[in-house]
Here is the input.
Amino acid sequence: MRADLDIVAGMVGEGKSVLDLGCGDGTLLESLIEEQRCQGFGVERDLDKFLACIDRGVPVTKGDLEEELADTAASSLDVAVLSLTLQATRHPERVLEEMSRVASCQIVSLPNFAHWKLRGTLALLGRMPVSPILPYEWYDTPNIHLCTLTDFEALTAKVGLRIEARVLLDADGRKAPAFTTRAHNLLAEGAVYSLTAT
Here is the structure.
């Protein structure tokens, strides 16, 4: 399992009902179900990843996560997870609002486009940066709404969400060193947030 997914799993807790949006191959959801006694299901639009979920025995729906969110009953879940996916959604603000509508806790992880290496690549080379957490070239990226951690934190406040916890990430998706908190928007390569409605 990706290192950042271990952090996400720790934030979810045990015995929760979980919706994993953009669940990929189902690795996280499988772990939550088998190791943390959670119940839940995923949503994945990519056919190969959807089939990987089926192979794992993970409950999954094939479709667009924004449409699935709209069809999910209000306050029906404990946790909604969006892992390294917000930047690939068409309407990030609406996605956060809908996550808040369907679940009492929202866990979101995202890359930080303001990391110093990315800034340097753009400034010095004049090229769109590629990194382990943003591994795509500009012409084949699924990421359509790149943001900084500061941008994301401002958006959470705008849609009425409170940050309950934040874990900053290094290039490998592991917890970043403590000094990173001094200038998180410059030094962290990404972050995982636990959010609740204000």
Notes: The two ends are 32 Å apart (CA to CA). The chain has a mean pLDDT of 94.
